Amino acid sequence: MSLPKTQLIASLLPYILSLSILKSLTSNPQLSTHNPYAAVVEVEKLVYAYSRQEPVLQEISFTLNKGDRVALMGATGSGKSTLLENLIGLKQPQTGSITISGIPVEPQTLPQVRRQIGFSFQDANDQLFMPTILEDITFGPRNYGMSAVEASDRARQLLADFGLEAYANRSAHELSGGQRRLAALASILALEPTILILDEPTNGLDPAWRRHLAQVLLKLPVQVILIASHDLHWLGRVTQRALVLSGGRIQIDSDIQPLLQDGATLDQLGLPIDW
Ligand SMILES: Nc1ncnc2c1ncn2[C@@H]1O[C@H](COP(=O)(O)OP(=O)(O)OP(=O)(O)O)[C@@H](O)[C@H]1O
Ligand SMILES: [Mg+2]
Q: Does domain 5-25+38-268 have CATH number 1.10.10.10?
């Protein structure tokens, strides 16, 4: 999926502009102490079809609770990105419902919903649109009212965390694929989301950066992480639970460790573990 940049920016603006409320949510300690097992993401009988095609997603139901770190697995073309884009309202299901922190995902609630979610696209180019990556990372925080100095300090810290200090003033197209991926992740983390949804976050990263990203993600104070990836061993280090999409349905919803030991089942689902 690759949206034209203008359409993409337009679709993300309500989300970015409402981040002042996100900031107050994330800085309210009461919200993180109540009901630790509350449902954060609820999907009920979701059906989604691209125009003039059979449904890619059929009767998808699952719940992600506070504290869940979840892998979304499935063969190429199984519908992972399509499902993630439904969750943030970039695509609307034909039938079924999605609820984020108790708010039904509908056209009129999208600004409210998106203010809670940090979403990284499968293609990092869809995330970076400013003249420099420093501006890409300060863009969201500046729009929710952070001072230029504070936003720049936060961005420079994130650039340092991801080994990109020397590239702050370059545009995304002057970076390597892996560097673009890291810059895109930095631009999301700068927004301090409560729900993190990542589509193939390790694409283009070498093993050392995959390890570093895992360490960063494990330390984040978010309520829920949902990660679509083909990097099965890496998912085993970062997540506890796996959802596996196949034939348009969630065929497995289980702990990830036993699943990663079950090579025969993974093979049947188009996910041979050592390839
Ligand atoms: N814009 C589109 N129009 C029509 N069909 C599409 C469109 N985008 C994706 N599809 C189809 O929908 C199905 C699911 O695609 P999706 O990108 O969600 O899969 P995925 O599981 O994310 O795959 P990958 O592992 O390659 O990222 C595929 O068969 C794909 O060809
Ligand atoms: Mg995908």
A: no
